[in-house]
Amino acid sequence: MTKRNEDPREEARGHLEKFGSEILENIKNTDPPRVKVPSRSTSNIVYDEEERYYTLADKKSTRTAANMRQVKKFAQTLCAADFCKDLITSGKTATLREMYYTSEGWPTGGFSSQDRSDRIVEDIESAFGVKREDLGLLPEEDGASIFGELVVEESGMEVKATEAGRAGYTIPPTMGDVEFVACGAERVLAVETMGMYHRLVQEEAWDDYNALVVALKGQPARATRRFLKRANEELGLPIYLFTDGDPFGFHIAMVVISGSAKLAYINHELAIPDAQFVGVTASDIEDYELPTDKLRDSDIKRLKQLLEDPRYKDEFWQKEIKKMLSLEKKAEQQAFSKYGLEYVVEDYLPKKLDLK
Amino acid sequence: MTKRNEDPREEARGHLEKFGSEILENIKNTDPPRVKVPSRSTSNIVYDEEERYYTLADKKSTRTAANMRQVKKFAQTLCAADFCKDLITSGKTATLREMYYTSEGWPTGGFSSQDRSDRIVEDIESAFGVKREDLGLLPEEDGASIFGELVVEESGMEVKATEAGRAGYTIPPTMGDVEFVACGAERVLAVETMGMYHRLVQEEAWDDYNALVVALKGQPARATRRFLKRANEELGLPIYLFTDGDPFGFHIAMVVISGSAKLAYINHELAIPDAQFVGVTASDIEDYELPTDKLRDSDIKRLKQLLEDPRYKDEFWQKEIKKMLSLEKKAEQQAFSKYGLEYVVEDYLPKKLDLK
Amino acid sequence: MVLARDIFKEFKEHSVSEFFRKNASMLGYTGKIRSLTTVVHEGVTNAIDAAEEAGTLPSVFVAIRSIDKDSNHYKVVIEDNASGIPDEFIPRVFGRMLAGTKLHRNVQNRGQQGIGISGGVMFTQATSGKPAKIITSTGDDDGISYNEVMIDVNKNRGKIMDHKRLEGDWRGTRVEFEVKEVIYQRSRYGPYNYLRMTAIANPHVQITFEEPDGSLTVFERATEQIPDEPKPIPPHPAGMRADGLLELSKNTRSKSVGTFLVNDLSRFSRNKLKKIENMVDVNLDKDPSKLTWDEAESLVSAFRKMDFMAPPTKGLRPIGEENIERGLRQILHPDFACAVTRSPEVYHGGIPFIVETGLAYGGDAGNRRGSEEGGLEIIRFANRAPLIFNQGGCALTSAAKDIDWRRYEVNTERTPLTLFINIVSTHVPYTSAGKQSVAEEPEVYEEVRQAIMEAARKLRRFLRKKIRRKERRQRANLFEKYLPIISQKAADLVGENPPEVEPLIKEIAGVESDEKK
Amino acid sequence: MVLARDIFKEFKEHSVSEFFRKNASMLGYTGKIRSLTTVVHEGVTNAIDAAEEAGTLPSVFVAIRSIDKDSNHYKVVIEDNASGIPDEFIPRVFGRMLAGTKLHRNVQNRGQQGIGISGGVMFTQATSGKPAKIITSTGDDDGISYNEVMIDVNKNRGKIMDHKRLEGDWRGTRVEFEVKEVIYQRSRYGPYNYLRMTAIANPHVQITFEEPDGSLTVFERATEQIPDEPKPIPPHPAGMRADGLLELSKNTRSKSVGTFLVNDLSRFSRNKLKKIENMVDVNLDKDPSKLTWDEAESLVSAFRKMDFMAPPTKGLRPIGEENIERGLRQILHPDFACAVTRSPEVYHGGIPFIVETGLAYGGDAGNRRGSEEGGLEIIRFANRAPLIFNQGGCALTSAAKDIDWRRYEVNTERTPLTLFINIVSTHVPYTSAGKQSVAEEPEVYEEVRQAIMEAARKLRRFLRKKIRRKERRQRANLFEKYLPIISQKAADLVGENPPEVEPLIKEIAGVESDEKK
């Protein structure tokens, strides 16, 4: 069990204080306060072939309080920084939505929409290289459910993932505060749907496979992605991703693997380039004669985009995407129920995971 | 702690077997097999003023295997009944989606869409007065998260809701199999959003209020509604509902209180007529000068519908809905953050819950 | 300050030809594709009308020959088998506008305004500088008359540039227009589609068409029956206006206003005369030519308070339900065709009209353009002549679009359906002299709607019957398939062996219980 | 079988009046509101043209008086202060179609086809049975001439029903039309809006308008300057067609083809003559009247290979940028007005035209109908005469709609903006004789687009300047408000007291760093 380095929240507070003192310095010197923020525009997002995920290139923009169009936003950025510092100091957290409402009481006045306050948070994250979770800002939604031989500690309380009820242990938004205590599993099997999760729990696949079963619940929350990343890095577990056989399923898996363009500034904390896709493929559709749905126009358009996407450049993806386009069909992971409820657990997955 | 009566799954199996033997009788007598199903059409859904929830009236339609347009569906109904019987016998569960895919292997062939297989399940539920959960059919989604002094037993395992992690204990889809073991709380406070749930957990309101805090996560799942119903009946706890101040929030609360028209055939297992609404009202918007959004056209339309709805006939709702229409504004439960993150916990809710 | 006498030195009068030469687009000469179709239209319209007037079954030959492809230079030939034209009328028929055998009579004809064919001559000389060639013979012993005709625009007169007599025994007329600034295309707007539509609406006409690439298409006639000759119809009292009545009264042969009303108006019986006597303060015995405006106005307002029979049909020449169906079947080979010919109605000014509709389903029917699979095609006609352009502003189109087609089991995007609409009238209310679009007179719009719905109801019966036939076949199969499953699964539920199900199948497949919810 | 001689017994010729009587909608007499506006339009157009021809500043009086409201019966009076009309011309001016002082000349006038005012007379007699009253005086000693005129439709001739001489000393013409089957409304399509638009486009005209309820509106003139009299313009070689050239060559006084080209065409210099000599195989010394079609064609195709100067403006009479602005300001009281008069261009057939546009922003400008707050109003003119109907099919409208207005800071749904468009030409390419909509000639469409964009750019400069002024005011406030907050919060972050921020405010509010991302 690798131990994590110093408290990320204290580190974040250091960044905020340094930001404050630089600005005080500016003001005292009658220099316009300024801050450099890496550009998050499309042109500055690049796919890093070596790291195998999206990352930001070097373009930075300078925000300055001397610019009429920026001065209000600059003041709001400082208010937000101070709000976060208070959260860290008091050991509390808030949702982005709560911060948006809290801003109504700021001397700058509130934001016209939550989009804008969210963007200020992204500015702070990317300017200082800190995650919003470490600033005390949390998403509303919980992370995934986990079932399997894992013990964690959070807020001084030990939780066993096999003893939190049939629905499993739920990853809290405050994933940064969770410590791994013990782990008896050898791998992580993350599945797209709750239906498949319950099937695997019910059939005791977590035990058979010696795996932590994780329900991604569609596109996974940031807390879930942090969990998978840390399970991979700190526990050294290989990650397997079992999704539907459709462009959305591919995308869910690929965001876990290579990160999204939108979060390029934080992908080094999220992407797991070695995670493995074991979802439904076009070949599976053929080989297992699965029940399918017809591809919609939007699916076809999406698949054609994926063909051009650098993350899908390898032979496997190119072949499977082209085959799906020529089949004009997609299939869900639950489609294996055609052969009985247990089939997916007893036959399909063991083959994919090389357990058979 | 009231003990529940006999195993509902065994009861359900009895209904299915009786159904089978009646049909065999018909066939042996060269009578067309038939079954009576209460009509779920709008005209047969009535608001029961005495029970204070929606229920089905007496209209029933007879499905017969002698009707060309019904014979296939009739055969599918029997396949589904047999599928459920097998689930009960083997102690397993399946999602509706899994049943839909499994039907591909039935002698009748599969359904053209999941809607249709779902409707067959509703037929069986309402014909025999059994819940789908007791037939072994589960929704995909988990129920709400719970935090507070509650101990339950499921699958022979005891779970404490304060020791399942910060995200709390998650109600499993198989709520029917959960037994209440111990409860130290005096009330249930169910809130609409995860954000508010985490706020209440963080501020330790569950302790201050002596309450089980439940996150409804929007329109609550059936498992959540069963949990609330059973907490009310078996544990004798009063239920308080804290939602956003908008037509959707009102609707969330009212579905818990009086049931929905769509599930009229099963509302006696779900509706909690004594549950109490403590959500954001139009008066709150005025009294607390809350940050608001403008009502959309769809909100206005919806509010006008509510005015005519029998569930909203009492003075409180009529006054608040009319006031909201005249303000032309709505507000979220997190809007209290305008006065600081703790305000809702320390000031607003204690007043509403008569704790102050 | 300029004085009147100086200004009016410039006062001049002008010819109608000059007017239309400057405003050729008003006659449909606008755009390279449309101009060519307009030339063909004017020629073919004249040809068919002429043959019918002459009492012969029309056979029309149309050729479009490329003279110089690069410069969009074509020769258009249209030949009929009608009565021919006496020499002395040639300059007037082809070289003079607002002249013809039709304009003054209250008779339904394809052509109507005496402008069309002279317009073709004018377009010819304006684009190629060439005269039109008119070869005609009345079939008597004089042989064949060859003429080259141009229009003297300033005088609105035809000029014979060349005249010869040729040997030969033939009756008919052949016109040759050498035109430039046009393009031949086989599109919806081109001559091919124009002739195809003409063939549908005129099943008694045979059209032979030679395209510039030399290919020959023959649209065969579907009936040997020449439509009855149209008769002039007196105007109908409903909707008549004072000035129209006065105009008539000036030209009547009747001696008294009373007899004038009875003789010169449709559906004006002696009985009505008695009624109107008590309604108006007009001396019905007076000389009709002495009728005053006020008297005419009071007569007309009395008409509006009375009920009249619908106008007589004898002057109108509908295609008839049977012939519309024949035309649709001959050209589109559909699975189903039906037609409706409505009773005559009157629109503003006492002008009678009849609406006819037809529907063809399956086969070559429907909107076949591009990659689309089917969908509703609307083909419009006025007095059997195709309306191809200005579809958007036309009352026939808007009436068709306003129908809720789903009520008739039709999906306008997919169902392979051609809707035929023909309006028949002594005076079709065109929106412009281009004659491509019918004005939205309320009475016309409503009749078209009714006629379409009547045809659509017939189609619906067919489509529903088709569905029912299919159902009966499936019925027996259904019970044979599903009752054994019911038996098996019920047995599984109980844990028994399934009982014999054959007797039940026999029972049920014989007497289906049609119990409803 | 029917023989030719029997058929052609019926052959008849018809008058143009008869044609338009049957097709009154082609002249704009369609619908009760539009018919009334058409009558006013024809009268006012004639009145202004007449005053200008006579060299006087036009003052026009228009009255619409209700005679019997229930039966939609009105009297329309239009009076001008022009030269008056000599008696002998009265039947021809008011009673004959295709007659006038204008049609034969290549001159820009509001009226153009010599049909309009006679159409008014025809509509009068067709709806009320009354003659039109024409009161006119040429200002000489003979006093005033009072006439009642009707049209003999069959002959296309005016008939004087009554004639008197009245005492008086006055010059001008007053026409009175008693019409029925019309409705007076103050809508976009009614006479009020028509006259308002006329006043905008003719700032030198004073219009006094009496409505049926007796209320009087005076649209005052905004300039005392009479537009220069238009001159006939010879056709321009670019886009000329062979038939047009031949037509000209028949009527020239020049003795050789060479001098004919130089004298009778615009912008055809001696220099060009030398050039064309080497390009064509035509004897330029020959008598122009002997020019053949083939020679004309080769000359025309040579023209197309040469460059010519834009056509001369002397025949065209644009309103001019200054006067358009005056008109817009006088009637709409906007915050901003601008105008563009483009250089002349030529469209198909060598016909010169000029496009003018104007924009008025704020004040009474913009689409004010109904409950809408603003938005783009398009007002169209041809030779200064308002185009009110058929907005949809008009090239001016479509050019305006195809502009990406957002590029010019305009929200077409909200910005209070009136777009004025005037096309000036010796021959406006109308889509129909109703003269309400301009055909989509590519050259015209493109010019209109350019002219609108040019005006829109001026508007954009104004709007941006307006925005900038507002910004400067806000700028200082901004820094004064937010810099102290920045200072305070930075201090909070560090846990110090905030430093003095005034020096920084002074520094920044003086020299704004305009650093961009």
Automatic annotation (TrEMBL), chains A, B:
This enzyme's EC code(s): 5.6.2.2
All copies of domain Spo11/DNA topoisomerase VI subunit A N-terminal, residue ranges: 72-136
Binding, Mg(2+): 192, 244
Active site: 101 (o-(5'-phospho-dna)-tyrosine intermediate)
GO annotations of cellular component type: chromosome
Record bears the keyword RNA-binding: no
UniProt subunit comment: Homodimer. Heterotetramer of two Top6A and two Top6B chains.
HAMAP family xrefs: Top6A
Protein name per Swiss-Prot or TrEMBL: Type 2 DNA topoisomerase 6 subunit A
Source organism (scientific name): candidate division MSBL1 archaeon SCGC-AAA259A05
UniProt gene name: top6A
Automatic annotation (TrEMBL), chains C, D:
Keywords, ordered alphabetically: ATP-binding, Coiled coil, DNA-binding, Isomerase, Nucleotide-binding, Topoisomerase
Reactions accelerated catalytically: ATP-dependent breakage, passage and rejoining of double-stranded DNA
CDD domains listed in its UniProt record: TopoIIB_Trans
Pfam families, per database record: HATPase_c (PF02518), Topo-VIb_trans (PF09239)
Coiled-coil annotated spans: 445-473
Protein residues bound to ATP: 46, 80, 101-102, 111-118, 435
Classification via InterPro entries: HATPase_C_sf, HATPase_dom, Ribosomal_Su5_D2-typ_SF, Ribsml_uS5_D2-typ_fold_subgr, TopoVI_B, TopoVI_B_transducer
BP GO terms, sorted: DNA replication; DNA topological change
Domain Histidine kinase/HSP90-like ATPase: start-end pairs: 31-183
Catalytic activity, EC: 5.6.2.2
GO molecular function terms listed in the Swiss-Prot or TrEMBL record: ATP binding; DNA binding; DNA topoisomerase type II (double strand cut, ATP-hydrolyzing) activity
Subunit structure: Homodimer. Heterotetramer of two Top6A and two Top6B chains.
Record function comment: Relaxes both positive and negative superturns and exhibits a strong decatenase activity.
UniProt similarity note: Belongs to the TOP6B family.
Annotated protein name in UniProt: Type 2 DNA topoisomerase 6 subunit B
Source organism: candidate division MSBL1 archaeon SCGC-AAA259A05
Gene for this chain: top6B
